[in-house]
Amino acid sequence: MDILTHTITGVAIGTVMASFTNKGFEKKLLIIIAGGFGACLPDIDAISLWSGFDATLGRLFALNHSGKEIYSAKFWYSHHAFFHSIFAGILIALVIIAMAYLIKIKFRNLRYTELKSYQKKHNLLLFSFVLGFILHLLQDMPTPCSTWGGVNFFWPLNSYIGGTGHIWWWNNYDIFLIVLAITIINTIMLSISNFKKHILTKITLGIFFIGFTLCIKQINTRGYKFNYTNSTSSYQEHELKSKEIQKQILGESLFNIMLTFDNKLKIYF
Length: 269
Ligand SMILES: [Zn+2]
What we know:
This protein is an all-alpha fold.
């Protein structure tokens, strides 16, 4: 799925996590950003497609394969591999927290118990990041099989999960609009300060689950199989079909708005 929908989904779960704290705007904003950051991070493994990859990272790590080959392969650093696993999400979150703690104490007098309490203090940030990360992995599962056959969700196990082809790689405007709606509604709820915390968490969680259910429904009712293994000669056909389906779902006017927005973006959307 496209990086924008992934990131907004992370922001959406961030708004839910932010409702669990009584702290002020700054803390809530950080929790929301952590969700968005966690949700866009797994696609860092697409860096092997970068034109300068072979001359820089490829040479630095003395890799035997070109970035393009690595991207489609099943090395641990290939696309949809280690960085698309729960393990990576948790590990990266813990490394970031440990680094933040070390910077705070200026790398002096490191005490494990203090590190532990620092982590506890920032648990909401941590959860937001990890949940955003995991949601990205779930969103990639209904995309086509291609060369990977899903995502390596339980790395270091070899199994890949998903690759069902329920949705196309991008043009999932309906899903984007649902997660955007969750984000907007929850942000409004967060800014209404009259709510008691336990009410607010129930509201944001409720909005998120309604949106999540709607996304699952949309994914399962495309009525077209986008799936292919390795490469496909029907790529253009799938691409056009995914847009046609969006036109049917959204109606002509909303579809045209989304298409104009899409055409203005420099990324696949
Ligand atoms: Zn991904």
